[in-house]
Amino acid sequence: MNFIQLLFLVIISGVFWYPRIETAKILGVFPTASKSHYIVGSALMKALAEKGHEVTVISPFPQSNPLENFRDITTTDIWKATEPFTSNLLHFKRTSPFENIPRIYKFGHTMVNSTLNDPAVVKLINSGEHFDLVILEIFMTDAMLGFAHHFKAPCIGLSTFGASKWTTDLVGTPAPPSFVPNPFLSLTDRMSFSERMLNFVMSLAEVLVVRILDYPVQNQIYQNTFPDPKPSLQELKNTAVSAVLLNNHFSLSYPRPYATGMIEVGGMHINRNPKPLPDDIQRYMDDATDGIIYFSMGSNIKSKDLPDEKRKVFLNVFSKLKQKVLWKWEDDKLPSKPDNVRIQNWWPQDDILAHPNVRLFITHGGLLSTTESLYHGVPVIGIPVFGDQNLNMAKAERGGYGLSVPYQEISEERLSAAINAILGDSTFKQNAQVMSQRYRDQPVNPLDLAVFWVEYIIRHKGAPHIRTASMDLNFIQYHNLDVLAVLVGIPVIVILLLSRLICKKKTPRKNDRGDRKKRN
Ligand SMILES: *[C@@H]1O[C@H](CO)[C@@H](O)[C@H](O)[C@H]1NC(C)=O
Fold first, then answer.
1. Sequence spans of domains, the chain
2. Which residue CA neighbors atom 10 of ligand 1 most closely?
3. Which CATH homologous superfamily contains domain 20-268+445-467?
4. CA dist 112 → 82, 106, 119, 218, 412 (Å)
5. Is the pLDDT of residue 398 over 70?
6. How much is the pLDDT for 302?
7. What pLDDT, in 10s, does the model give residues 478-495?
8. Which of 117, 121, 225 to mutate to test the pocket of ligand 1 (most atoms within 8 A of CB)?
9. pLDDT of 450 higher than 90
């Protein structure tokens, strides 16, 4: 066989044997009015559209330029509905969990209800359209599992952060609180007794919170939205989701067990092939021989909303540095801007961080930003304001690749001390690079892995064979309490019976003695 024949054979067998699916119709539902949540979901949907799948996306973020195979269903009411929760993020108060938790669920319910009542979404529900798969962001969105049943399609859940009770319950991932830290506490996987106590109590509290605060409202929204006949929402929670994709990777967090259908695709949104920077920025960064500091508070917080005194802190500290600073500043002017600071209302963050002269990223500590920074091996200073930002920065401090300067504590001393510490001590950079090497060492790039699993679930019609049997067990069976009852109960019963027998045998002897006494 000559080379040409061999090549022909390889191509032909590839064509026939590679397990392919016809292009599928896929519905993505990413209702959260927060750009960072959308970035994760849309990265996957765009990759699927590129592979030829016909993609429909419900979200509040329409594409500015139309994409092939990509249809937007844009929700518009959500901005107004969720405004009371999202305005003034910088003035977010550290309130007690008793106030915070109901408020967060209220935000979720408002978001879900507003999305499901949006005219564009109602039209889709009543359209009689068919989908082969639903990809749903799992973020207080249980009512939306109704899409899966309504369109008779398997469902994949997508979490924009690591595993939480919201996702583990859907696919039967075990989460023993003895070593799996709750994602909303800033604990590690190695906990002291009191930390384990806290983690355990939190895991119980979550059960109650979901049952009492979340489920009844989700159920009401579900009942009002999707036409009958339909299963109970609880049944959907047990059966509808075939797999969950997590925006997490063990190298960035902790190793832990997962059900087969729970897959880590952390950082799949990161652009693996950095695009060339605009010429002037490229030159500016190349010339920065003392290094670059990149400063962005993310997509939700606007640094132009910083109060005057905090802004002055940054300006004063930056003006004393020999590094150049790239600042995501959402306004044309920045009064008394030092010469070494360059402002722009948007930077190609991923490509900026890829530049070798970047020495430090000052961030709000959001998960996407910290993941991108680690991917590029850049240490961080975090200015956590709310949400998981404190947790991410606690992790950065423990991992030795970052320092935290909480928003409420910003001062010239704190900020310049942190900047000098990171620029002056190369171990921060080394630790960030070790994290980067561990994270990058993966058999496939996470976006390809996510696409694989999407197509796998479609190919195998919901892949019922990967469903964990624990999903069909009740609490007593899952924890083998019935088995324990038998294993402990039978010996106890036997011992009790035996001891009674012995007592009975002894009793006549007592009588004997009594008799003897009488006789004496
Ligand atoms: C959802 O929105 C509809 C229409 O605005 C409203 O009538 C209903 O009470 C809301 N349901 C919940 C649970 O908030």
1. 20-268+445-467, 279-440
2. 113
3. Glycogen Phosphorylase B; (3.40.50.2000)
4. 10, 10, 14, 8, 42
5. yes
6. 82
7. 999 999 999 999 999 999
8. 117
9. yes
Q: How is residue 486 written in tokens? A: 């038998």
Q: Whose CA is nearest to atom 2 of ligand 1?
A: 113
Ligand 1 atom closest to Cα of residue 110: 14
Q: Closest ligand 1 atom, CA of 109?
A: 14
Whether 32 lines ligand 1, by a CB cut-off of 6 Å, is no
Output the CA angle 431-180-434, nearest 5 degrees.
10
Which residues, other chains included, contact 414 with Cβ-Cβ below 8 Å and sequence gap of 6+? 405
In short, whether 217's Cβ falls inside 6 Å of ligand 1 is yes
Residue 181 CA from chain centroid, whole number: 14
Domains 20-268+445-467 and 279-440 share a fold: yes
Is the minimum distance from the CB of 81 to ligand 1 under 6 angstroms? Answer: no
Q: Whose CA is nearest to atom 6 of ligand 1?
A: 113
113 Cβ closer than 6 Å to some ligand 1 atom:
yes
Pocket lining: 220 vs ligand 1, CB cutoff 6 Å: yes
Q: Report pLDDT for 20.
A: 60
Answer yes or no: is the C-beta of 153 below 6 A from any ligand 1 atom: no
Q: How far apart are CA 232 and CA 98, in angstroms?
A: 29
Name the CATH superfamily, with its identifier, for domain 279-440: Glycogen Phosphorylase B; (3.40.50.2000)
- HEC readout, 190-216: CCCHHHHHHHHHHHHHHHHHHHHHHHH
Query: How far does the centroid of ligand 1 lie from the alpha carbon of residue 216, in Å?
Result: 13
- Give the total residue count for the chain: 520
Ligand 1 pocket, 225 CB below 6 A?
Answer: no
Residue 94 clears pLDDT 90, i.e. is over it: no
- Give the CB-side neighbour count of residue 255, counting CA atoms within 13 A: 1
pLDDT, tens digit, for every residue of 24-59? 999 999 999 888 899 999 999 999 999 999 999 999
Provide the token pair at 168. 């583990």
CA 160 – ligand 1 centroid, Å: 26
